[in-house]
Design brief:
Elements: E1 2-6, H1 10-28, E2 33-37, H2 43-49, E3 60-65, H3 71-75, H4 77-82, E4 88-94, H5 102-110, E5 112-115, H6 121-134, E6 138-139, H7 141-151, H8 155-168, E7 171-172, H9 174-180, H10 185-197, H11 201-213, H12 218-237, H13 243-250, H14 254-265, H15 269-288, H16 293-306
Parallel strand pairs: 1-4, 1-5, 2-3, 3-4, 6-7
Length: 307
């Protein structure tokens, strides 16, 4: 059996590897497991490792990480795959696979190819609900959406937060999410923008300083402002649809849409588009000119305050 685990979703890819490893160890024990860093191994050594099992380990599992970074090995990929012996399972783990290469195309054709991509925000709430259920707890979809919006889209972070929430109570509520989790920088950006649009200069600047105190760089704050403005204009354009319909069409979470609706109604499409253009122009300027990024981003926010 030859399996490729690829894609940029580290959490799901790692979970699949853990499941396959656990199954092998259950069936045959740990003695037959070999873990190799593919970008460092010589092709000859790898070929030796994937030959048939031996007296001490008749069944073997060879896990090779990032073989795509090994130019000599990728050129011999066909030989490597053909050399996998009886009783040997080979798992190739690729964290940064270029799907345009002949190496990737060969893996797709000649191995059990499993690709794990990051989930869309709208999908994550469903994943949280199922994950909590598997762990013996319960959470409603709106609360799951609130958790995703609050802590962000990292499944690794969400998994850690679920451990904490479930240790507190098997039933996860909106109150426990507020009590036990910290808002991600992106979640706080909504408050920052809301204060700016409301003309609350002191509050807006205080929230900006909080972001910087959390080691969030000005460029990252600017990117999150762009994301939040995108959510606002999408919500504004779909104001005659339900939050669920807007979320389904835009890949935003229903919670994000509902959270954006009140502010979106107070703004015009032209106003939002103008601000998005300003953000894009500032991002380009910061990459091409030696400006003080803190001053530039705060000036943009003051421009919002001024209307």
């Amino acid at each position: 059996m030859i399996i490729t685990l690829a894609g940029s979703n580290d959490f799901l890819r790692g979970a699949e590897l853990k499941k396959l490893l656990h199954k092998f160890v259950q069936d045959y024990g740990e003695a037959g497991v070999e873990k190799i860093q593919g970008d460092e191994i010589e092709t000859g050594r790898l070929l030796d490792l994937i030959q048939a099992g031996n007296l001490f380990a008749p069944e073997r599992l060879v896990i090779v990480k990032d073989l795509s970074a090994n130019k000599l090995a990728t050129e011999k990929l066909t030989d490597i795959l053909a050399s996998v012996g009886e009783g040997v399972d080979l798992i190739l783990v690729e964290s940064n696979l270029d799907m345009r290469t002949s190496y990737a195309k060969t893996l797709q054709k000649q191995t059990d190819f499993r690709k794990f991509e990051p989930m869309q925000e709208a999908q994550l709430a469903g994943w949280v609900v199922e994950e909590v259920k598997e762990r013996g707890g319960s959470i409603t979809r709106p609360v799951a959406a609130k958790l995703v919006d609050r802590v962000g889209g990292s499944q690794q972070l969400l998994s850690s937060e679920l451990d904490k929430l479930l240790a507190h109570n098997a039933t996860i509520t909106a109150e426990s999410v507020e009590l036990l989790t910290e808002a991600s920088p992106r979640s706080s950006i909504f408050d920052l923008l809301e204060s700016a649009f409301a003309g609350k200069t002191s509050r807006m600047l205080a929230l900006y300083r909080e972001q910087r105190a959390q080691k969030v760089e000005p460029q990252a704050i600017l990117s999150m402002i762009a994301w939040q403005l995108h959510a606002l204009i999408v919500t504004k354009l779909g104001d005659k649809r339900s939050p669920q319909e807007i979320a389904s069409m835009s890949k935003l979470s229903p919670y994000t849409v509902r959270n954006s609706q009140a502010l979106a109604r107070s703004l015009s499409v032209v106003q939002l588009q103008t601000l998005i253009d300003s953000v894009i122009n500032l991002e380009i300027t910061l990459k091409s000119k030696a400006l003080n990024a803190d001053d530039a981003v705060q000036a943009l926010l003051l421009q919002i305050v001024a209307g």
